[in-house]
Structure formats: C-alpha cells, structure tokens
Amino acid sequence: MYVYVYDGFVTDKKHEKLLSRVETRLTDLGISGRVERLTMFKDIGEIVADAALQGCETIVAVGDDGTVGRLIDVVGMHDMSFGVIPIGDGPHEIAALLGVEEGVEACNILSRRVLHTVDLGRVNDHFFLSSVRIPRTRAAMSCNGQYSVIPTEDNEVRVCNLAPMTVSDDGAAAISSPRDGFLQTVFQPSPRRGFFSKLFRPAEPLPPPTVVPVRTLSVRHSQPVTVIRDGQRLSSSVLDISILPKRLKVITGKTRKFE
Amino acid sequence: MFKNDRETATVAHETETVIAPSVRVEGDFVSEGNVRIEGEVKGSISTERDLVVGENSKITAGVQARNAVIAGELHGNLRVYDRLELASTARIHGDIQAKVLSVAPGAMMKGQLIIGLEVPVQEKAAAAASVDEGAEGRPPIARGPRSVREKKIEELLQQ
Predict the structure, then answer these.
(1) CA distance A147 to chain B (A)
(2) Is A249 within 8 Å of A115 (Cβ atoms)?
(3) Which of A153, A172, A211 sits opposite B18 (nearest CB)?
(4) Chain A contacts of B35, Cβ < 8 Å?
(5) Global confidence as pTM
(6) Cα dihedral sign for B108, B111, B115, B119?
(7) Is A204 exposed, middle or buried (0-12, 13-18, 19+ CB in 10 A)?
(8) Does A150 touch chain B (CB under 8 A)?
(9) To the nearest whole angstrom, how far is the Cα of A221 from the nearest Cα of chain B?
(10) Higher confidence at residue B145 or residue A32?
(11) Which of A28-42, B48-62, B132-146 has the highest mean pLDDT?
(12) Chain B CA closest to residue A186
C-alpha cells in the first residue's frame, strides 16, 4: 500500500497540470494510493502513524526538500519504505541525490522500486536524511566522545549523511555516503573579506575545509542557535547528533549519487 | 551543481579525515581511514591506514599509523607499521619506530630510532609498552646492511 503526502503548495494552480499527469501515471502503473495533504491543522506525525497502522509499506513525499525533511522526521520512527516525487520550485537536492527526476519520470522510478537501505542522522529528537547545517561558529565539537574539534576561526559546520561535502577545482561535488555508518562533518572556514573587497575584488576560492567522519557529535552553545536540518529550522543551544546505521529504505533512481 | 555520472559519488565514498589549519583537535583521535593533517593536534593520533602531516601542521601527540609522510612538527613518539617518510621540513621530537624509513635532506629528528623491525598490528599495545620502557627493555635495533641512509640517521642521532 502506498501513501502519498502532498505538501500544501503542490495543489497550487501552477502545479495543477503536472500533478494531474503524475496522478494519471501512478494509476497507469498501478501504484496509486491514499493521498494526504499537509495543512496547518494536520499533524504529520498522526498522518504517518495512521498510515503505519493501516499497513502502509511505502510513503511518498510529494513536494520539495522541505517536504522530505518533514516526512523523514517521522518516518524514521516507523518501518516503511520512503520515496519522493519532486514537484514545485524546489530545492530538490535530496531527490537529485537519490536519483529521482522531477515530475512524471519520478513515477516510473517509484514503480521500478529499487530499494537501498541507508543510514539516518539524528539531531536531538529529530531525524535527518541529508544534512544538518550549523551557522558560523567557534564552539568546540565533541566527536565520538573521544576528541574535540575546536575551530580557531568562524567555521560553518555541515554534518552530512547524504549531501555534497566539498567541491573540487573542476566543480565536481564530493558526496557523502549514506551507507558507510558515518556522518561526514565538514568545517568550512569563511573567506576573510571586508566590505570593500567584497565589492571590488573577484571572489577567491574557499579555504580548505576540515572533514571528520564521526558517529556522534555534541555541541554546546551559550545561546540557542538555529540550525537547518533537511531544509527545516531547529533552534537549540544543545545539539546531540548521531547516526542510526541502516535505518531507512529509500527508493532510488539510476542516477543516484551514492553506491 | 551535480554531475550525472556516478564518479562524483565515489570520490567521497572512502572515509578520509582532513584536519585543516582553521581548527584544532584535542583528545584521542582514532580513525579507520586515511588522515591528512594541516592544522594542530594535541593528544594522540591513531589510524589503521595512511597519515599525511603537512608542512605547517603542529602535532603534540603520540602517533600510530600504517604508513606516514611527515612534513610538519611533531612532539611525541611515532610508531609506523610499514613505511615512514620524513620530508625536508619535518621536525620530530620523540622516538621513532618504523619498518622502513625514508629521510629527506634537511629533516630534523631528536629521539631514538628503531627501524627495520616487524611490528605486528595486533600487538600495538605491547609495542607501545616496549617503546615507553627504558633502554634496557628495548628490542635490539636491526643490523642489516648499512646504507647511506642509515649512516645519516646515526649521524643525526649522535648530534
């Protein structure tokens, strides 16, 4: 049984034609299912729990990265496969990393049902599939309970499960593997540029980042900071991040960015 | 942003640690993959694979690795189970144990050398204990054919 969770914007008039084609294609392929629409008054936790009770095997996020982030946060607690149909203006980075193309082609990928079991990240009481982004900080980060990484200057920190980590000189993005049991933590120092140099000098390449694979990461800030988890905001002064190996089955396409 | 071929994905598949100059690491750093250090580390470093220490890095730690290339400053004992290369900019203050040692002209070492002995990986703890013992408890230094490199190392030790 399939359950399709539509984000609120998907039913906008500008996506009407595409959504109609998607629904027709799903019916043609024999994988149509129950449709749930996310609204302000619906609790996504209840939607997923209800689907699990009714024997839902596959839950599909219809929308963008934000939709995926909201759904992953609750799907991580249940035993069901996860798919995505990218619709809308985006961003669709997570779908691209899973090799799922936008629109009708995503239906064919769902139908082929190539499943991969991937790790899931956890930050405090929330799950994430792609990454957690911590804004510029100098806070010490305790890794695996064994050592600390202390930025000596402002660094943006990205804790990546399935996300681009670094970009090489030829523009190719190195993607973290969501099947290796590690979260790749990237400390990217900000380029030192003043106001005038920003205006008049060409952009310089970013300083080299620190990349540390970890299983657990703890950060304590003196004040709450807002981090971005799969496109969702989370505000806390305490961040306890860990990995749950082989926790989620995801439907992937041929162009997925991991082995 | 992303390339369609799968090659981009495989680039990062291998677990590798990079410590850049913008951070400092303190504590017992343990890795299962290759490690490249360009910043500062205090505590201990242990990896089952290769270690590269950059020219501007500063390490105050005991170090264990399978292979190592050192071009920076190290205060602490260094134990390498296979091949150790010291670049011309290397500054080592501590004892060195390695199966094979390569030293570039200009490298500086201050400590004792045990070169040429097989150090089984599963006996790391025992090896560590033997290094930390006094001179009487040390295993004898292997006396193979004396090469120019070995003579140079001995000269450095006598200085």
Answers:
(1) 4
(2) yes
(3) A211
(4) none
(5) 0.80
(6) negative
(7) exposed
(8) yes
(9) 17
(10) A32
(11) B48-62
(12) B18
CA-wise closest residue to B153 among B115, B127, B125, B118: B115
Counts for chain A of helices (H) and strands (E), in that order = 6, 16
Q: Quick one: pLDDT at residue B146?
A: 52
**Closest C-alpha among A147, A258, A167 to residue A209:** A167
Mean pLDDT value across residues B36-40: 94
Tell me which chain B residues have a C-beta less than 8 angstroms from the C-beta of A162: none
Q: How far is B147 from chain A (nearest CA, A)?
A: 40
A110 touches chain B (CB under 8 A): no
- Start-to-end CA distance of chain A, whole Å, equals 27
User: What is the mean pLDDT for each group of 10 consecutive residues in chain A (259 residues)?
Assistant: 88 87 90 86 85 89 91 88 90 91 89 92 91 89 92 91 78 82 90 64 76 92 90 90 92 88
CA dihedral (A163, A255, A168, A180) in degrees, to 10, reads 50
Partner B contacted by A6 (CB < 8 A): no
- Cβ-contact A71, A44 below 8 angstroms: yes
Question: In chain B, which residues have their Cβ closer than 8 Å to the Cβ of A173?
Answer: 1-3, 8
Residue written as token pair 């939607």? A47
